[in-house]
Amino acid sequence: MKHRKRKQIEMVTRCPECRSEHLIMDGVHGELVCQNCGLVVTEKHIDQGPEWRSFDTEQNEKLARTGAPMTYTIHDKGLTTLIGRENRDSHGKSIPTKNRAQFYRMRKIQQRTRIKDAGERNLATALAELNRMSGVMGMPKVVRETAAMIYRKAMKRNLIRGRSINGVAAAALYAACRQCNVPRTLDEIASISRVDKKEIGRTYRFIIKELKLRLTPTAPEDYIPRFCSELKLSNDVQIKANEILRQAAEKELTSGRGPVGVAAAAIYIAATMCNEERTQKQVADAAGVTEVTIRNRYKEMIRKLGLKIDAKNKKRSPAQGSGGWSNQKNNEVLKTSG
Q: Could you tell me where the beta strands, DSSP code E, fall in the chain?
């Protein structure tokens, strides 16, 4: 009877007095209070947190009695124990020399028993490759977890058979970037992977088709903050580039064109209009596209959007590229000398 009554108290979601659902928990007094009428709905709640307090990370690690949270980026989800290599016990004291050989054998046996069969060995190799690529690219934790989950689903559906582990891992990471709205190009994934771009793209298309992943195409606006940060441009350039892309989308200039090239051209135009000029080569290197692509998108946007560039900036025409100023000065010197 007492257990049933406690279960009813925990499931209270509405105030019995005013029937309001705006209930707040007072953690200091352990009371559930109605925000509208002030009625104390329940009291004497049990604090589920730790009974100790910490004021820095080092103190927190010393007092905590639990391990790391569960994660999909480890083949056993981080639920198994691990014998460390520090040769110290739980109190931080050094293990005697006569017992170190025994701990070495236990550590080796424990590492072997963590992987039961070939499937787990495959998963451990793939997740290690995923962690390596994510670390090189500086991916956030949510992307790593999503990529590991996509790989686990592909393995469960037996989609790995006949394909390389590195190729499927790279394709899963690319799909996770698309799913989490962390835009990365296929060239960036291929540059850090151990397989080529063609195999990653083929495996990626196969995975999203078989797993029925609904991924929206990337927009040029998604690349603006990262490219501007690499080029060390101000916030005004970002705002101007987004405005140019919005106008280009209304004129349907972004459809059927690569989002990276369109974003790079918009940044080039915005930087020129805001007097923070960058050469086409600098923008092309930051975006990972060619200067020809930027020039083509640049000419098209200038012509169809009717954008006006200052006379000072027009001297460097798109056809001249990064060497426009030097060519113009050389011509003037030749004329003067003649």
A: 23-26, 31-34, 40-42
| CA 131 to centroid of chain Cα atoms | 12
Enter the pTM of the model.
Answer: 0.69
Bin 158: left if φ > 0, else alpha if -120 < ψ < 50, else beta. Answer: left
Tokens of residue 151, six digits: 């790989």
> What domains, with CATH codes, occur in the chain?
10-42 (2.20.25.10), 118-210 (1.10.472.10), 220-324 (1.10.472.10)
> Which tokens is 263 given?
């974003």
Percent of the chain's residues with pLDDT above 70: 87
Render pLDDT for 230-280 as a digit per residue (tens, 0 to 9): 999 999 999 999 999 999 999 888 888 889 999 999 999 999 999 898 999
Phi, psi of 25 (to 5 degrees): -100, 125
**Dist. CA 209–CA 169, nearest whole Å:** 16
Tell me the two tokens of residue 259.
């989002």
pLDDT tens-digit readout, 167-226: 999 999 999 999 998 889 898 999 999 999 999 999 999 999 999 998 888 889 989 999
Strand, coil or helix: 95: coil
Buried b (16+ CB within 10 A) or exposed e, 56-66: eeeeeeeeeee
